[in-house]
Every structure is written in C-alpha cells, then in structure tokens.
Amino acid sequence: MVTKQLRIILGLLVLLSLPVGAVGSTADSWHIRINIPEYRLYLYHGTELYRSFYVAVGKSDSPSPIGSFWVINKVLNPTWYPSKRQPVPPGPNNPLGKYWLGLNRPGYGIHGNNAEWSIGSPVSQGCFRMYNHDIEVLFNLVLPGTPVEIEYRTVVGEMDEEHRVWLTLFPDIYRIDPPGRVEQVISALNWEGEPHWKSLDELLKHKRPTAIEVPRLIRLDGDLLGNDGFYWNQEFYSNGLPATVPASDFPGYQPLKALADFEAGQWKLIWYPEHDTLEVYRFKVLLNGKIIAGAAGRKTADRLELNRRLIGPALNLEPESIPAQNGQSGTTGSVANFDWIPLDVLTSTKRGLRYDWDETTWTLRLKTETKPN
User: Fold this and answer.
1) 314 CB-contact burial (10 Å; exposed 0-12 / middle 13-18 / buried 19+)
2) If 216 and its partner were Cys, which of 78, 193, 285, 343 is the partner (CB 3.0–4.6 Å)?
3) What is the H or E stretch that residue 10 is in?
4) Which residues contact 107 (CB under 8 A, 6 or more apart)?
C-alpha cells in the first residue's frame, strides 16, 4: 500500500515538472510574458491580458535569462539555498518570500521578497521578485507547465487610431540593445508615414522610461522660407520661420501655430493628410502688380483688413486721413488701435480703387485707374 501511494506521488511530481507541450495547452490557458527593461510581468488568459505586475530583475552582472521557458514547479514557503552559504528557511529573513514559481532554467524563478523597495529595479541574482500580494495572486492562478516568455525590449511601438506612431522607451540596463532598434520597431508597424529623424533624435535624448510620439515628415509648399517640416503633438513645425516666432524644444524648428498666433490672420494653412503635404500662404497685397512689403493685410472671420500705415503711402494717402472702422480719424484715441482697417473703408476712401481676392493663395490685388506717383 505504501509503495502504491509513493508511486502515485512520484508520478504526479513528474507530471507537474513536464514542459508545457507535455501537459497540454488550450486557447484559454494562462501564460506569462516578462519584459526585463520594463520591470513588468504580464499575465494572459488565452489572448486576453488579465493583469500586469511590477517586478525586480537581475543585475547587470547577474542578468535575468531571456527566452522561452515554463513553470516547472510551485513551492509554498520555500527554503533559499544561496551559493556557498547556509540555507535560509521560510520566514521574514527569506528573500524568496512565501511563494516560489520555479522555471525550467535551474536556479531561476518568480518569487516574493523581503525588501519591497527593490521592486521595479535591477537588483536580483537573476530571478524575478514580485510584491508579496502580487505573487500570491499569480501563484494561485498558474500551474506547472505555464509558458513564460522573457523578453528584452527597450523600444515598444504602437500605432493609434489616428495613425500616429508612439514609442515607449525603457533603459538598456544590460547594454545589449543593438543599433537601429528604433528603426526596426517603426518599420514593423507598417506605418504609411515617414519619421522626421532629426526631431525624433531630439526626443530620443529624453530620460527613460518615457513615451514619445514619432514626428511625421511633411512636405511644405507655399510661401515659407524653409522647406523642412514635421507634424508632432497635433502641431506643424517648420524651419525658416520669422524671428518673431518663439523657439521650440526642437532646435531650428518653430511651431506654425505660434506663427498664426503672433501674426493672426496673416497666414493660411492647408493640410493634405493623404499626401503629407502642408501648403502655407501668407497674406500678400499687390498694388498694380507690385507687392507691398511687410504685413500689409490680414483676414478675420468675416472680412479683409489692411494696414493703413503700409497701404496709405503706397496710395499717396496720409495714414491718418484714412477713416477707422467707426468713421473716426486716426488721430483719435490710440494710433495702434486704428492700424487695421476694413477693405471696404479703403475702397470708399480711394476713388477708382478696385480689387481682386484670390482665396487659394491668399493674395489681394489692388488696382488704381492711374498709378500713384
């Protein structure tokens, strides 16, 4: 009788130590994925993520293993057997905690801890430490044979519903990440866009861990002096903008929104996302075919306005003689308040003045019956 019981016990132990293929797996079985640089353990049930947990990982001189493994045994109240030292029995001084999930890599496993400060850092001898309340959850769910995939991914990419690419970056704690990792991750997403590498390089300098949006290269047409631009954080950036536009976090590039804010109504932006092309036009005023230098015009919500201090001299008119919107002369009140006047005020003041407005290129062409001297 004793012999039969012993055989049954030994048979069960052998079965529980078999690899997952021998035990069998189904679509709704548990499996574990660990990303070392992320200090994160993911528990899946079938294809669905069930929970994730923070872990401590191996130090650089005692790194955690990378590859495909499985849980080979489960031990409650384990004894720790340190190399060349006396075994440490279960209790508060045992760094394994109360629960041990051994891997089929001898000496490595997932376990609790007696130093919770260590979770989320590379401090172990290669095992994966968990918070004690977390390892209890994991211990009660998984069985021997559960697959454990251990990865080393410092760059994780994803594409959102707006087809923007995001990178989550983790520190290369073991200094083994190969060059070109970012390029590989972006390429694997099959993104229809193209990264703007110069601005992306600036973002990659940020301290890790961090999450960044990949700047998208755009083509610029129109009136900008620069021809290099990108789209990032729901803003367009370009080089070669006027010095009045504040600098940004990207050396040599400024946001076009700032341009529109500082010179309101003087710029028109047309975005063609299917071609990654941005057309930018500045309000231009031509008098008898000759452009008037400076910010001579702008467009508000319902009308065209002109700067009479630039338009007046071109039309041989004293700026102060051109009525303001309310019919007052420019000598009344603050002069700055009367710099911009509606186009219809100007045409009623200057007889024979005709105009043509091109909405596409934001060009206002003024014509007089006779050219001013």
Assistant:
1) middle
2) 193
3) helix 2-16
4) 126
Assigned token pair, 360: 């596409």
| Contact partners, residue 34, CB within 8 Å, separation at least 6 | 40, 41, 42, 55, 64, 128, 148, 149, 150, 151
Catalytic residue among 45, 127, 196, 275: 127
CB 80 within 8 A of CB 98: no
The token pair at 254 is 């400024």
pLDDT class for 294, splitting at 50, 70, 90? confident
Domains assigned to the chain: 17-151 (2.40.440.10), 155-213 (no CATH), 221-278 (no CATH), 284-367 (no CATH)
pLDDT band at 371 (very low <50, low <70, confident <90, very high): low
- Unique residue bearing structure tokens 């890599």: 105
Nearest to 256 by CA among 302, 294, 225: 225
Using CA atoms, how far residue 43 sits from 17, 28, 142, in Å, is: 20, 12, 9
> Over the stretch 186-222, which tens digit does the pLDDT of each residue have?
999 999 999 999 999 999 999 999 999 999 999 988 8
111 is catalytic: yes
Token digits of residue 309: 């201090």
* Cα–Cα distance for residue pair 268/279, rounded to 1 Å: 8
Nearest-angstrom CA–CA distance, 280 and 256: 9
Q: Provide the token pair at 128.
A: 């994966």
Q: What CA–CA distances, in Å, run from 30 to 40, 46, 152, 193, 196?
A: 17, 6, 21, 37, 41
> Which of the 8 DSSP states describes residue 273?
G
Q: Is 275 a catalytic residue?
A: no
Catalytic residue among 31, 45, 111, 196: 111
Residue 24 zone, left/alpha/beta (φ > 0; ψ -120 to 50; rest): left
319-329 per-position pLDDT tens digit = 777 776 544 44
